[in-house]
Amino acid sequence: MTYSSHEIDEEQMRELIEFCQEDYFLLGILKSKKLIFKQTAYIEGKLVGVIMAWKNDFHPYCTYFRLLTNPFYSSWNIESLLLAKLGKQSLPLQTSIWESTTNLKQLYEANGFKEIRRTYMPVLKVDAVDLEIVNDCSIKKLKELLINPTLKIKLLQFVRKTYEETHLDNPVADKSLEEWEKLLIEDVLVEGSFIYLDKLEQNVKAYSFLHESDQPNTLELGWCGGVEFDFLHSLLLTQLHYAKEHNVEFLQGEFDTTSPYAMFSLSALPFAPSSAWVTYRN
After folding, report:
1. Which Gene3D superfamilies does the record match to this protein (predicted)?
2. pTM of the predicted structure, to 2 decimals
């Protein structure tokens, strides 16, 4: 087996990503200026393993990394050898794996990594749900709040506070409300994201955002929060109705165990069973 830090053949990297059921965003990381470490392993010219590490501007207090190996070469102990190549970094190391990837689970735990979060990404078939229309004048589209300066600031403060409180193990960078607004506008569907206001329409009681998806006929439920779960439940039903109106076939969640609001959303709708994406940190 030989090692290299040179440029990786993209076709072989794609094959390795498919073997490992990983995300193709890693191809972009390899070409990014945020990449700080890369090491590959080859056997007779075939890419059988890679470890890469990078920085994240939104979560700057750790070093992210991924370790991918070809399962047909498991007897070569490639995972341990590549992890040793990475070694210690100036910041804590953080990575994520599918819960069924038991070889990496054992490796990370043996090297002092601790599980900090599980993320569930289940799918809901929209037409399978009989839905009563929610008629509540307290529910507003995100699009409406963004043109109300006072409520927009209150929403952004609420979103930032909730995100910070649910990511204590991996703190977020100190961002201004203007930066949060930019992030929000770029990442969510303003027509399909909904806000629950109090009766006087002066304060935000809950929010639930909807996102585009890479999967066909699918939208994704993402950031959510609220002062009461009942408010959040009404928003979820409104989003389900929105999906039906727009002939969306599936809703997919992305629910972190560190967020009580995400866990409520997971239990509030009849999602199909899903394996967990487990995050480790040392």
Report:
1. 3.40.630.30
2. 0.92
